[in-house]
Amino acid sequence: MIDVAVVGATGAVGKELLTVLEQARFPVGRLTLYASERSAGATLCFRGGEHAVLPLDAAAAAAHDEVFLCAGAGVTRAVLPALRRGRARVSDNTSALRLDPRVPLVVPEVNGARVQEGRGHVCVPNCTAVLLCHALAPLQRAFGLKSAWVASYQAVSGAGRRELERLGAELRADLLGEAAPAAPHPLAFNAVPFIGGVAAAVDAACGVFSGEEIKVAAETRKILEQPDLEMAATCVRVPVLRAHSEAVFVELKSRPALEEVRAALHAAPSVELRDEPEKLVFPTPRAASGGDGIHVGRLRRLERPGSFAFFLAGDQLRKGAALTAVQIAQLQWDLPVTLRIA
Ligand SMILES: NC(=O)c1ccc[n+]([C@@H]2O[C@H](COP(=O)([O-])OP(=O)(O)OC[C@H]3O[C@@H](n4cnc5c(N)ncnc54)[C@H](OP(=O)(O)O)[C@@H]3O)[C@@H](O)[C@H]2O)c1
Predict the structure, then answer these.
(1) Are 6 and 33 spatial neighbours (Cβ–Cβ below 8 Å)?
(2) In a 3-state reduction of DSSP, which class is residue 105?
(3) How far is Cα of residue 217 from the mean position of the Cα atoms in its chain?
(4) Could you give the CA distance from residue 33 to residue 313 in angstroms, rounded to a whole number?
(5) CA 69 to CA 181: how far, in whole Å?
(6) What is the pLDDT of residue 204?
(7) Backbone angles phi, psi at 151, to 5 degrees
(8) How far is the CA of 69 from the centre of ligand 1 (A)?
């Protein structure tokens, strides 16, 4: 049995992780839950028992067998020296080390073999990149990938528990005609095309990219091991509770027929094709919520040779974060990998 710690256990990802650990029957021996001082006195339920949430202590966290990091990049950077001195294997949901060339960035169904190169620390990619790579990898394998242009429609739970609470307060205020909490851009009844602040280190001649847009492109290139992939994303926050959606335009190196592209997507273990628009069957975030499949549909061949468009939706808290983190831990401990639960 494995001595497990979850750092950031009270957050949106941390709570989903506890659910997935339980559902995947991960062999948890001892379980220790860490969060900030704000959560002192809180308890969370796991396998029917109540577990106290402790204030994070880096040295104590580093003494567990497996540590799931789900408390933000700043917390990861703060605990990293202790983790490096300790013996814990780390499955890291935060962005702190994702682009570090020494640290594998893993989507298990795409590049799971890379886990063993991690010397104990493996990163879960950005949730929008995870969902995207499940659809791009089979196309890359079958036909070669030249470019991928993406527009994302990202759920509010992707920004954490507090933003979900903000959406609730704004919706209540708007619907009851009350004064809404002050915010530069309300989430309620809106679409906000700027996620993650201004990206650092982008050529000024290219204009302003958001942090999320840079992460999606850079991480997708790392996961697919294709630094020359022509790619960009426009990332938009929409007032959906959970599950991100993405409109994707790809150019493939060979020029397959529409049915060959459909067959390649259909054969991917994590993809669920939902592509009968004439019967109103297509992906939506609401239908993808709570599941582990990446719903793909609205597949169309475009005028430019080798170019296709499709739409995908996937639960970013499960497949985009918690389930991927648990799969990585299963690979770290040579356990059978849970492909799907829900
Ligand atoms: N949400 C998603 O869909 C998603 C998907 C993929 C990856 N991620 C990444 O996963 C991480 C967590 O995201 P989230 O959405 O779960 O955020 P969240 O809901 O805001 O939760 C943050 C968690 O971190 C804890 N925390 C904050 N400051 C801390 C500190 N100084 N010491 C210890 N714990 C601290 C919080 O504890 P308190 O409750 O005590 O404040 C809470 O448990 C982020 O790096 C995010 O980028 C999120």
Answers:
(1) yes
(2) strand
(3) 14
(4) 31
(5) 31
(6) 80
(7) -120, 125
(8) 9
Nearest atom in ligand 1 to the alpha carbon of residue 7 is 34
Does the predicted TM-score (pTM) go above 0.85?
A: yes
pLDDT in tens, the chain (342 residues): 999 999 999 999 999 999 999 999 999 999 999 999 999 899 999 999 999 999 999 999 999 999 999 999 999 999 999 999 999 999 999 999 999 999 999 999 999 999 999 889 999 999 999 999 999 999 999 999 999 999 999 999 999 999 999 999 999 999 999 988 889 999 999 999 999 988 876 678 889 999 999 999 999 999 999 999 999 999 999 999 999 999 999 999 999 999 999 999 999 999 999 999 999 999 999 999 999 999 999 999 999 999 999 999 999 999 999 999 999 999 999 999 999 999
**Catalytic: 206?**
no
Structure tokens at 297: 């549909």
Residues 6+ apart with CB under 8 A from 166: 156, 181, 183, 187
The answer to whether the CB of 328 falls within 8 A of the CB of 115 is: yes
Q: How far is CA 16 from CA 157, 243, 251, in A?
A: 11, 13, 35
Torsion of CA 32, 34, 38, 43, to 10 degrees: -30
Pocket test for ligand 1, best of 7, 36, 37, 123 (most atoms within 8 A of CB): 36
DSSP states of 244-276: EEEEEEEEESS---HHHHHHHHHHSTTEEE--B
Nearest C-alpha neighbor of 262 from the set 275, 278, 253: 275
CA distance to 9, 135, 299, per residue, from 268 (Å): 32, 8, 15
Q: What's the 221 CA to ligand 1 centre distance in angstroms?
A: 25
Residues with a CB atom less than 6 Å from ligand 1? 8-14, 34-36, 38-39, 56, 70-73, 75, 93-95, 127, 157-158, 160-162, 316-317, 320-321
- Contact (CB, 8 A) for 297 and 308: no
Classified as helix, coil or strand, 60 is helix
**Is 295 one of the annotated active-site residues of the chain?**
no
